Every structure is written in structure tokens, then in C-alpha cells.
Amino acid sequence: MNMHFKMRVATLAVSVVLLGGTALVASGQTGAYFSDTHAGAITGSIGSIAITPDSPTSIAFQNLLPGVAQTVQVNYHNSGSSPEDIYLVFNNLTALSALNNLGRYGSVIITSSGTGALGTDFTSYNLDDNSTRCGPFSNAIPSGPTSGCWPLTSQIEIATNVAPGVSGNFDFAFEYASALTTPSTNQWNPYPLPNSPYVCVAGPVTPTNCNTNAQFTVNEPADGTGAGLPYQLVATQVGITPNAPGSKF
Fold first, then answer.
1. Closest listed residue to residue 190, CA positions, set 179, 198, 202, 201
2. pLDDT tens digits for 114-172?
3. Do residues 202 and 196 touch, judged by C-beta distance below 8 A?
4. Taking a C-beta distance cutoff of 8 angstroms, is the pair 70, 174 a contact?
5. Is 149:132 a contact under the CB 8 Å cutoff?
6. Burial, 231: exposed, middle or buried (Cβ in 10 Å; 0-12, 13-18, 19+)?
7. How far is CA 94 from the centre of its chain?
8. Which residues is 122 bridged to in the sheet?
9. Which of 244, 242, 229, 230 is nearest to 86 (CA)?
């Protein structure tokens, strides 16, 4: 076999091999890594924050007298599916400020009971919210010239991390000071007040303070007029205060 013929045979063999490779690629017969697949789905439920009163929420003092404390109580339970914190929210700021105009002529004690309850939640013997007259607020028992002003705040936490189904209660105790003279109305905590002499003894006593002692906050017309102290019993996620702003992470 001459050299020229050998080269032609070799060229033909190479062409066949190339054509065969092309055919393999065109047919899609490629290799792959080993794998294993299992189907699934992502599901979930959304928790709920809810509270249900177990007693009337409209509570009233009856025939209050100076020097005699009265207590009213509300019972509740966590009716949601998640743990929650419980707050008393006094949403009528005009009514709240009217109460906080009593100074040493009124006292409030709020206590709570049940799993997660915080016990004694608030105590004040000087309900005055006028920091201009009082100076820095302090819950010290007032005596002598010191004010010890300690107003009732708009939010009071009464229980924390209350599990679903768990019950609790809060007590609201109020007492007029024994030195109180006959008030101009038989309604408890009328609001707004025009002028009141009550807190003349709550801060530095001057004729000006006593004669111009209008309540510190009046939010009209939104709060309206009336008597009593409106409140809300509010459940929140644990660690979240009522009306706390949310965010997008």
C-alpha cells in the first residue's frame, strides 16, 4: 500500500469519528450528576392577640366619702392563641388630667392578680400632673413642703407574658383625702374642670397657684365632657406597648 492510499484511509477514519461525535451531541445523549427529589409545601398559621372580659367593664364607685377607700375590679382572660401583655390605657386625656388635678386630695392604687400579673402596678397619694408647679415628678409620699407629685399615666402595664386561656384581674382603688370639703358636684371626676382648689397643697403654696389652678390638660372637643375615667383594657404582643409604631424590618 503506497503512502498516498494510507493517508486517504486515515482521513476517512477521522471524518467518521468526527461525524459520530456530532451525531452524539445532536441526539442529546449527555451525562448528568446523580440527584434525588422530594416535593413539599410551606404552610403556616397566624397567631392572634385577643382579650375577653369575664366581668362588666363599666365599673362604678358608690357614695364615696372622704377618708374611705373603695375598690372596683375587672376580670379577664387571654382569648387569643399567643402569649400577650395586658395594659390599662386611659385614652381620654381630659378626664385623666381632671383626676390628676386632685393633688393630695385623692389617691389611686392599681393592683393586678393572676399568672403574669405585676402585683402593685401604680400607687399615688398626690395626683398632680402639672410639672411646672410640682417640679420633677416623684412617687415619694408627700410630706411637708415636698410635693411628691405622681400623676396617673395614660398607660399602665398590669400583666406580662400571659399564656392563652389564662385569667387575671385588676383592682382600681380610690380614696378622697379626709380633709376634702363638700365638692360642688356629686359626680366622681367631672371633666373638664374650670378651676379647682384641690392641688393648692400639692406644690409650693402661693395665692397665684390656688387661684389659677385649672387642670393641666384639656383636649377639646375630641374628649368631650362628662364624668368618670374612660379606659381601655388592651392586649398586645409580648414586649410591645399599645399603639407602638410598626416598621418594615
1. 198
2. 999 999 999 999 998 888 777 788 888 776 655 688 999 999 999 999 999 999 999 99
3. no
4. yes
5. no
6. buried
7. 20
8. 110
9. 242
User: pTM score, two decimals?
Assistant: 0.79
Do the beta carbons of residue 51 and residue 79 sit within 8 Å? yes
Contact between 101 and 216 (Cβ < 8 Å): yes
Apex 156 CA angle, 105 and 97, nearest 5: 40
3-state DSSP of the chain: CCHHHHHHHHHHHHHHHHHHHHHHHHCCCCCCCCCCCCCCCCCCCCCCCCEEECCCCCCCCCCCCCCCCEEEEEEEEECCCCCEEEEEECCCHHHHHHHCCCECCEEEEEEEEECCECCEEEEECCECCCHHHHCCCCCCCCCCCCCCCCCCCCEEEEEEEECCCCEEEEEEEEEECCCCCCCCCCCCCEECCCCCCHHHHCCCCCHHHHHCCCCCCCCCCCCCCEECCCCEEEEEECCCCCCCCCCCC
Terminal alpha carbon distance of the chain: 84
What are the tens digits of pLDDT across the range 86-107? 999 999 999 999 999 898 889 9
Q: Taking Cα atoms as reference points, which of 211, 190, 210 lies closest to residue 201?
A: 210
